[in-house]
Amino acid sequence: xxxxxxxxxxxxxxxxxxxxxxxxxxxxxxxxxxxxxxxxxxxxxxxxxxxxxxxxxxxxxxxxxxxxxxxxxxxxxxxxxxxxxxxxxxxxxxxxxxxxxxxxxxxxxxxxxxxxxxxxxxxxxxxxxxxxxxxxxxxxxxxxxxxxxxxxxxxxxxxxxxxxxxxxxxxxxxxxxxxxxxxxxxxxxxxxxxxxxxxxxxxxxxxxxxxxxxxxxxxxxxxxxxxxxxxxxxxxxxxxxxxxxxxxxxxxxxxxxxxxxxxxxxxxxxxxxxxxxxxxxxxxxxxxxxxxxxxxxxxxxxxxxxxxxxxxxxxxxxxxxxxxxxxxxxxxxxxxxxxxxxxxxxxxxxxxxxxxxxxxxxxxxxxxxxxxxxxxxxxxxxxxxxx
Length: 387
Known about the structure:
Blueprint: H1 2-17, E1 20-26, H2 33-46, E2 52-53, H3 58-65, H4 73-91, H5 95-107, H6 114-134, H7 138-151, H8 164-172, E3 181-186, E4 190-193, E5 196-200, E6 203-207, E7 210-217, E8 224-230, E9 236-239, H9 247-259, H10 264-278, E10 282-289, E11 292-299, E12 309-310, H11 316-320, H12 350-371
Parallel strand pairs: 1-2, 1-10, 3-9
Antiparallel strand pairs: 3-6, 4-5, 4-7, 7-8, 10-11, 11-12
Helix pairs in contact: 3-9, 4-5, 4-6, 5-6, 6-7, 9-10
């Protein structure tokens, strides 16, 4: 039983001494180099801290302190370049090249965040419609013009800038409010149709006949989408496959949501999601206020967020002390209590006790011999002779 208790104690002792991981988060999103520098100092100090440690994933650490990349910048840049090329080809009456450039620009936009992609969708669709019309494809041109109307319903063409044929086909593509098509979107995430949010998928919506762009977004997925043509009197179903975002991307998004949180509830929710992604219960947050570098700690137990304080001249070790205070110095053991030694009395000495004992024995032996003595007794005279 005792051995089992010792084994159990040995098993739980290392767990108690395990160093807790700490997330260092730059909420300036790379706008203040001081925050990045302090974050790296904190990570270095966590490498040797007796009670705390840095994250095991270098990729996660980078996602928390490096300037977050613009995930859509490359696709938006490519679409913008293709738009300029398509417009130039149209001005040169090269409809085929204009169509090809517009098609290339449109192909990457369904994977761009809807609010950023919508204006480019409308501009490229308008150029694509003009190119189709120049190639004698009026019906195809009308479907692309209908997408322009769906995204920018107030757009009106200037007669001084466009041919009458373009103006007529564009006007005829204006959707009729009396006609609508039931569009069902299947998948996971938030549904966006023509740059407008419709709520969580799966979702049904009423749309006008014509071409539409349908996208799904979400904090834990990558943006995906597709084009669809709704026809009057028919139901339309669009299914977009799942595309789980890499964890590093989810961390960057959660960090940005935390940096832009508008109230305490949203801030606590964003911090909880971020902590769950990186599996930590302790964090140090760096931000700026009035040009000063501010520091705040967070723990997954009460009180949660600490007060926001100026960093000042505090070292990394001093900042980490808020999460793991240094141990109190050991107090020296109290001096032993000394009791006075009592000197034995004379009769308690060993030699005295031994002498008394021998004397008693001598008296007892003498008394026995005296009691058995008879006057005239002679010692026996025994003579032994050989035979």
